[in-house]
Amino acid sequence: MAYGLYIVTDRVIGRGMTHADMAALAVAGGADVVQLRDKDMPAADLTAEAVNIREITEDSGTLFIVNDRIDIALASGADGVHLGQSDIPAEYARKIVPDDFIIGISVSTPDEALKARNSGADYVSPGPVFTTATKSDAGDALGLDTVFTISAAVEIPVVPIGGISGKNAASVIGAGADGVAVISAVFGREDAVSAAADLKKIIEGAKTA
Ligand code: 3NM
């Protein structure tokens, strides 16, 4: 499973765009994964967005993950769900999803990463690696050292998030990450498609370096 370029949708950063609009740009820019993330949208609207994104990603080779809402992920035919530390625990999530359903978990320490792996997570997302203005409650930056320690601690893919851009993506891969997750580095840019494509080149370059 390739997690190289993992793009998360955000209505604030994506000024005026729907989540499906953003997913289409992400796919056009070569995203390996698109995550639908919206903590405020009513479930009916979020479901409609998820169904649209499933259609957009269906034959693209881009995986589709839904943040938090395992019910909407399942109902829309998404490839997986991304869960936080206070969401339904992965071992319980596992009980209600198909075998090949992807479960990703947000972590901030090597212990949380190990616990996530032991409870059946398919990947972990340490964050915030760097300072970010996109998520106000993201907490202090973990730094590359923590990415390194977490990557060494678990054999499942590690996809850090928070403040990652074209300027520092190679250093995140260099610290052992399998991919990078971004919002503003793509949707905060005038040309999101080129921004994504440029990031993908940087990630691929860093992986073969
Ligand atoms: N989660 P940007 S940081 C959605 O630390 C999210 O878990 C984070 O946005 C975490 O790429 C974050 O614009 C925001 O920094 C990432």
From TrEMBL:
Superkingdom classification of source: Archaea
Keywords in alphabetical order, please.
Answer: Magnesium, Metal-binding, Thiamine biosynthesis, Transferase
Q: Can you tell me which residues bind 4-amino-2-methyl-5-(diphosphooxymethyl)pyrimidine?
A: Q35, L36, R37, D38, K39, N67, S106, K135
HAMAP family, per database record: TMP_synthase
MF term (GO), any: magnesium ion binding
**Into which EC class is this enzyme placed?**
transferase
- UniProt cofactor(s): Mg(2+)
State where 2-[(2R,5Z)-2-carboxy-4-methylthiazol-5(2H)-ylidene]ethyl phosphate binds. Answer: T132, A133, T134, G163, I183, S184
What InterPro entries has UniProt attached to this entry? Aldolase_TIM (IPR013785), ThiamineP_synth_sf (IPR036206), ThiamineP_synth_TenI (IPR022998), TMP_synthase (IPR034291)
Example GO biological process term?
Answer: thiamine biosynthetic process
Protein's name in the database: Thiamine-phosphate synthase
Q: Pfam families, per this entry?
A: TMP-TENI
Gene name, Swiss-Prot/TrEMBL = thiE
Q: Which PANTHER family match?
A: THIAMINE BIOSYNTHETIC BIFUNCTIONAL ENZYME, THIAMINE-PHOSPHATE PYROPHOSPHORYLASE
Annotated Mg(2+) binding lies at D68, D87
Q: In which pathway does it act?
A: Cofactor biosynthesis; thiamine diphosphate biosynthesis; thiamine phosphate from 4-amino-2-methyl-5-diphosphomethylpyrimidine and 4-methyl-5-(2-phosphoethyl)-thiazole: step 1/1
For this chain's record, the cofactor binding note is: Binds 1 Mg(2+) ion per subunit.
What's this chain's function? Answer: Condenses 4-methyl-5-(beta-hydroxyethyl)thiazole monophosphate (THZ-P) and 2-methyl-4-amino-5-hydroxymethyl pyrimidine pyrophosphate (HMP-PP) to form thiamine monophosphate (TMP).
**Which family does the entry's similarity section mention?**
Belongs to the thiamine-phosphate synthase family.
Give the Enzyme Commission number.
2.5.1.3
Catalysed reactions listed for this entry: 2-(2-carboxy-4-methylthiazol-5-yl)ethyl phosphate + 4-amino-2-methyl-5-(diphosphooxymethyl)pyrimidine + 2 H(+) = thiamine phosphate + CO2 + diphosphate; 4-methyl-5-(2-phosphooxyethyl)-thiazole + 4-amino-2-methyl-5-(diphosphooxymethyl)pyrimidine + H(+) = thiamine phosphate + diphosphate; 2-[(2R,5Z)-2-carboxy-4-methylthiazol-5(2H)-ylidene]ethyl phosphate + 4-amino-2-methyl-5-(diphosphooxymethyl)pyrimidine + 2 H(+) = thiamine phosphate + CO2 + diphosphate
Query: What cellular component terms from Gene Ontology apply here?
Result: cytoplasm
Q: Where is the Thiamine phosphate synthase/TenI domain?
A: 5-186
